[in-house]
Amino acid sequence: MRLIRLVNYFILLFILISCVSEDYGDKPVIVSIVKEENTKKFNAIEKGLIDQISLDKLNVKINFYTSKGDDASIIEVANNVREDNSSIAVVIGENAVLLSMNIIVPQSILFAGCFDNLSLSSIEKSRVQNNNITGVYGNLDITKYLKIISDNSLNSLGYLYSKNYEVSENISEYLSKYCSNENIHYYPIAFEADYTINDIENIISSLDIDYLFIAKDDYIDDNIYNIDNLCSKYSIPIINTDIENALNADILFSLDCNYYYLGRKLAELLKEVIDNEGSTDSIDFIEVSDSYRVLINKDTAKLYRINFTEEILEESYFIIEDKNVIR
User: Fold this and answer.
1) Is there a single domain that holds both residue 283 and residue 298?
2) Whether residues 115 and 104 fall in one domain
3) In a domain, 72, yes or no
4) What is the side-by-side strand order in the sheet with 60-67?
5) What is the pLDDT of residue 327?
6) Are residues 46 and 183 in the same domain?
7) Do residues 207 and 304 both lie within one domain?
8) Can you give the pTM of this predicted structure?
9) Contacts of 101 by beta carbon, 8 Å cutoff, 6+ apart
10) Are residues 269 and 251 part of one domain?
11) DSSP assignment, residue 116?
12) How far, in whole angstroms, is CA 179 from its chain's centroid?
């Protein structure tokens, strides 16, 4: 009889444990998604994330937040995230990601965006301090291509960007060090929020620049055609990290990332963290280098009498010729 009771006890215990495990497995994981406000690239990351979550049938409940990418906004969002019962926070953006690294939240943090080497180093330091961070990223390092765009020697480089935008300031610092090491004259052109295109012209017209590298920000997006016309006036080829703008303006060279694919990889990382019981421990950052895309414009090259190198022709994902994308 005692043996029968003991067997029945273990059967009952097994059933109870199975029920608890089943209930836990059926319970959705609460995830907070914080996206830097409405730019196409961040929207594309979010769409890739949501599509892959749906495809993988991840059992998650999502709270959506939008950040303006400034200190006040990210602090407000962080306060909301702390109280929303989520176990994982996903941060999509650039400035929003960098700012969120300075804020302590109980959740594991996953990030996604494109960053320069200095910004990545800052994120890595935050991981050492907090040990609850992982993410997927692109590193659009323009310096790897500067000397192979053209057969002509590169003597000077300008960088046009919005002042007080942390990612752009980090890129400027990185470019300054690169140009110093390579004996290239570097001209940082940091404009204030109230600058007009005439203010920018007054600066550019006095500089001898082989290429003008333009940042990826709202002001430049809104004024891309004016900047294009301005550079054409002073015979300055433009390079950038925004293929969409490069397809619509006379950009000589563009390096960009497939942001939708970045979002898909973010969802795969989210699944890995969920399977790891919500912990980012031992889960490394992932660089999506297979999503990088190079565009060159042969029409613009002809206008400025620039010969592309064979190396950059082979690297190119898109080639524009006679105003058509031929590859």
Assistant:
1) no
2) yes
3) yes
4) 60-67, 29-36, 88-92, 108-114, 133-138, 286-287
5) 79
6) no
7) yes
8) 0.85
9) 122, 123, 126, 133
10) no
11) -
12) 24
- Is the CB of residue 56 less than 8 Å from the CB of residue 271? yes
- Amino acid symbol at 230: L
Q: Is residue 4 part of a domain?
A: no
- The CATH number assigned to the domain holding 30 equals 3.40.50.2300
Indicate if 168 and 41 belong to the same structural domain.
no
Tokens linked to 226 = 């004016």
Say if CB 89 and CB 63 are below 8 A apart.
no
Place of tokens 């900047």: 227
Whether the CB-CB separation of 207 and 219 falls below 8 Å is answered with no
Question: Residue 14: phi, psi to the nearest 5?
Answer: -65, -40
What does the pLDDT look like over 145-178, one tens digit per residue?
A: 999 999 888 999 999 999 878 889 999 999 999 9
Write out the residue range of the structural domain in which residue 182 sits. 142-256+293-325
Same domain for 155 and 76: no
- Specify if 2 maps to a domain: no
**Helical axes 117-130 vs 166-181, angle rounded to 10°:** 120
**DSSP states along 122-152:** HHHHHHHHHS-EEEEEE---GGGTTTTSBSS
Number of domains composing the chain: 2
pLDDT at 12 over 60: no
Question: For residues 278 and 283, what is the distance between their CA atoms, to the nearest angstrom?
Answer: 11
Q: If we measure between CA atoms, which residue out of 223, 253, 230, 225 comes closest to residue 240?
A: 253
- 207-234 burial, b at 16+ Cβ within 10 Å, e below that, comes to eebbbbbbbbbebbeebbeebbebbbee
What span, in angstroms and rounded, lies between the C-alpha atoms of 233 and 164?
Answer: 28
Residues 60, 198, single domain; the answer is no
Q: How far apart are CA 232 and CA 242, in angstroms?
A: 19
The pLDDT tens digits of the residues spanning 75-107 come to 899 899 989 999 999 999 998 898 888 787 888
Is residue 258 pLDDT above 70, yes or no?
Answer: yes
- The answer to the question of residue 166 being in a domain is yes
Question: Sign of dihedral through CA atoms 227, 232, 233, 236?
Answer: positive
